Amino acid sequence: MTALLAAGDVAAQAPLPAMLVDRSVTLRIDGALDEDAWRTAPVFDAFHQFLPADGKPAPARLRTTVQLLIDDGALVFGIRAWDDAPERMRGTLTRRDKVGLDQDFIGIWLDPTGHGRAAQFVRVNIAGVFSDGMYRADLDESDLGPDFPIDAAVRRLADGYSMEIRWPLSNLRFPYADGKNWRVMIERSVPHADGLLLTSTPLKNGSLSHIALLQDVSGMGDTVAAVRDRSFVELKPELTVRSSRDRDAAGRQRSDRASAGLEINARPRADWVFNATLNPDFSQVEIDEPTSSGASRIALSLPEKRGFFLESADVLGLPLSAFYSRTVADPEWGVRATWRDAGADATAMSLRDQAGGVVLRGGAFETSEYAQTRRTLASMVRARWHGEQTVMGAFVSQRSYGDAGSNEVAGVDGQWRDDGRQALWLLMHSQTSAGFVDEPVARSTRVATRHGGYALGKFTSISEAWWNEMQLEAITPGFVNDNGFVPQAGVLKADLNLNRRLGGRTLALGGAALELYEFEAHLGLHEIRTLADPQRDQQASQVVERKLQPGIWFRAARQTNLWANLGFDQQRGRRVGVLHDVPAVHFGVESSPLPWMTKLNAEVTLGRQLDVDADRVGGGGNAIIDLGLRLPLPGTRGWSVETDFRVNRAWVQGTLGTPAFVDNGWRALGMLHFTAADSLRLLAQTTSAARRDDGVSGLEPWADRQVHRSLLYRHLWRHGRSMSVGFSRDRTHDPDTTNTSLTVKVQWEV
């Protein structure tokens, strides 16, 4: 959803000036901007509107200035933001990585490699809360996992605010020599001005990526040469003490144990980073939100939340199918090394995973799940070569099950882009000698080696009037990637998305007018067909799924996006099943409607739904609703309450007037923030699924329910030093099992 940047815009883009200060000068990070260095530093103030409509200059009443100083070990940004309605500025204490467009914030997107393919970023709201992470331009996706040791301070003023952000050079990843100019983009969010987002570059809505246009950082001088040989080592020991009580059919069990872990991060010089983890405890990582695939048997992917896997994620730079870190469930240890040069980069990783995880193996109509009953070794090596418009890469991956066999994958990939066009491709080959049996007990075992292949091609084309995308994917029946995510195999997939950009417009609704900042007409085509598989007696060219979905999308006031599609779809549930018609209506909305209601998101499907197990169609649907609230607590010293609610439901009606299949989930997360360093989290989550007599299939009725409740207090002294105390209770009803635990965890960066 984009427009191309005109050559004149690129030529006119001014660099962000930087000034090197004397090594004897110590800059206080207090948000005041009152030191001598700020009085003499050059000022940049050429901001542009990006949202809700691009191509306009920033309003004079919202003037924003940026200054950049380079001290002995960091980039220090000084921002002055004017606002003619400071009482309407929004910014409360919230969780880290939850700073969004509903809040006043300053964002910094920094690309020390100069390639424009990835950026490290941080957003700081006016309460001093951070969102930070790594952004990949090829997928136009942000990874919020990495946490950088950034220091920031904000001063609320009578006519706006001022902010200082200190970003240590030791946490920036750049080549040792011959690198390109560092590049940057500054952004400012002003939600009370109809969701205004200002950027220091003339970025266009719908560009190939959010960093399609960055500006050079000038005045760096010899800074890179001066800091590239500086080394650092971070040791992060952790101690976890847990007391658990379990109750199941065998009776009650008690467990009290303490475990120590260690994380090591080392950078001997700018182009090398080494990471290691020993016996990490991920118990304080927030559990996954409830999701539903309806009555489908195809697995869904989940986002990664563990920091070890997120270091230099841009170098790994592979589609999800090639490497999926959630395949490593409970590592005993892990090591990783990453190297960057001006024209190439590489990363290598190896982890020893304990037994107890789940292995996914894809088929044409379902994803099979197997218990990982052995300790495994997961390893990968990845390298890339950079050109001006192209990237070429190669990788090898192995999952070793010891004497029970292994899975090896090798592949090559590439990327090309030029003026609104981008092509991605990936080729992989696998050989697998690790299999699974259920009798007499579930276990992994060595089997005859089987080979398989995978191919992916994706092309995106953008112009003033169109945003189009085509993707082709082929996965042979024998392809397995136990370090990746392959929920289906033995299939051909084709996707075509055509989007006609119709520009902004105003709609008359009775006596009111609705302004649409962007409006698009959409047509989506999707088809999956089988490949021949003699081992599973699968014939070729069976249609598994076919979709024809015309629709519309628009963006309006209050950061509102709305879309609606008509689905003229077909779906087959099993190898010898019927290809069913499953017409439906699909629609969704994303909005930040009120200062205290920061998120209202919904995705809904209504119509005919396929019950895969019963191989029949009935009325039904799938709905997911997310609601986020943020409220300051009056009469307190800045305390605030943050709540997130999520509800999902999938169902297929039977012939007896009740749902034959239903899958429900709800989640309520409440945070009480006392200060930026102290918070109390309450999490309640319940998922349930059931099958009832549908009057036709004769399937056995069943019901399952899982319940989670937890309370967590956390205190953060500073980055890398924290203490948390948590209580949790988990219960499953089929079988009836309860686990209660009290956990105390201390992390201390040395």
Task: Give a structural overview.
This protein is mainly β and 750 residues long. It has a domain at 7-227: Sandwich (Immunoglobulin-like). Helices cover 3% and strands 57% of the residues. The strands form 4 sheets. It has a 24-stranded antiparallel β-barrel. Strands 1, 2, 3, 4, 5, 6, 7, 8, 9, 10, 11, 12 and 13 form a 13-stranded mixed sheet that branches. The model is unreliable at 1-12 (pLDDT under 50).
Descriptors:
750 residues; mainly beta; Immunoglobulin-like; 24-stranded antiparallel beta barrel; 13-stranded mixed beta sheet; globular; disordered N terminus
List strands and helices in order, with pairings.
Elements: H1 7-12, E1 16-20, H2 36-40, E2 48-51, E3 64-70, E4 74-82, E5 105-111, E6 118-125, E7 130-136, E8 141-143, E9 151-157, E10 160-168, E11 183-190, E12 196-199, E13 215-218, H3 223-227, E14 232-248, E15 251-269, E16 272-278, H4 313-316, E17 331-340, E18 344-353, E19 358-362, E20 367-371, E21 376-386, E22 390-400, E23 406-418, E24 421-437, E25 443-462, E26 466-475, E27 491-501, E28 505-509, E29 512-516, E30 518-530, E31 543-556, E32 560-567, E33 570-572, E34 579-581, E35 584-591, E36 597-611, E37 616-632, E38 640-653, E39 659-673, E40 678-691, E41 702-718, E42 721-733, E43 736-748
Parallel strand pairs: 1-3, 1-13
Antiparallel strand pairs: 2-12, 3-4, 4-10, 5-6, 5-11, 6-7, 7-8, 9-10, 11-12, 11-13, 14-15, 14-43, 15-16, 16-17, 17-18, 18-21, 19-20, 21-22, 22-23, 23-24, 24-25, 25-26, 26-27, 27-30, 28-29, 30-31, 31-32, 31-33, 32-35, 33-34, 35-36, 36-37, 37-38, 38-39, 39-40, 40-41, 41-42, 42-43
